[in-house]
Design brief:
Elements lengths: L1 E8 L3 H10 L3 E14 L5 H4 L2 E7 L2 E7 L10 E8 L3 H13 L3 E17 L2 E10 L3 E10 L4 H14 L10 H11 L1
Antiparallel strand pairs: 1-5, 1-8, 2-3, 2-6, 3-4, 4-5, 6-7, 7-8
Length: 185
């Protein structure tokens, strides 16, 4: 499965939400996400443009691998998610297991995320309004699509961004921006 995504510095969120509402969009949930990033023992994910994390959403735990970006106009990547059992004990044991296998813990990126869903060109799409600790405010537009639907999903995401008036695209990951900020201190 591909994650076809674009990310923008967040302008007037209220205006964006009004437009999304006219498209039939609605808020689905607001949540705090805590992403524990790891680097592999056999290669450097910064160099290969990959990411591996344990995401905590309240008690929920999900392991996620993201492959290298496949496109210059979007942040499209292969995304593989594996849900784990809920709870702090599972998160702790998962981090311990990854460390025992040679994975190096990089950092934790926290964000408050408000998720909206809407339909675009036959796809279920999400607009995520993110407030990322130490990084800033952003909006991500995303469609999950099979590789055979990549071009259609890409066109849908880019058209939605244009119609929303989004102009300040950000191709860096939250992890990259967070680490750059941490290096400034």
């Amino acid at each position: 499965m591909l994650e076809v995504e674009v990310k923008y510095r967040s302008p007037d969120r209220d205006a964006l939400k009004r437009i999304l509402t006219t498209w039939g969009g609605s808020p689905k949930e607001t949540r705090i996400e805590e992403d524990h990033y790891f680097n592999a023992p056999d290669r450097d994910f910064r160099t290969t443009d990959e990411a591996f994390r344990l995401r905590r959403i309240g008690p929920r735990n999900v392991l996620t691998y993201k492959g290298p970006k496949q496109d210059t106009a979007t942040k499209t990547r292969t995304e593989i998610e594996v849900p784990l059992a809920d709870g702090d004990a599972t998160a702790t044991k998962t981090r311990e297991m990854l460390t025992a296998l040679g994975y190096r813990h990089v950092t934790v990126v926290r964000k408050l995320r408000e998720v909206w869903r809407f339909t675009r060109d036959g796809f279920t799409a999400e607009a995520c309004f993110d407030d990322v600790d130490q990084v800033g405010a952003f909006v991500e537009l995303e469609i999950q699509a099979e590789s055979t639907d990549f071009e259609r999903a890409k066109a849908a995401v880019l058209a939605a961004a244009e119609e929303l008036g989004l102009t300040e695209m950000e191709r860096r990951s939250y992890l990259t921006m967070f680490l750059a900020k941490a290096g400034e201190r």
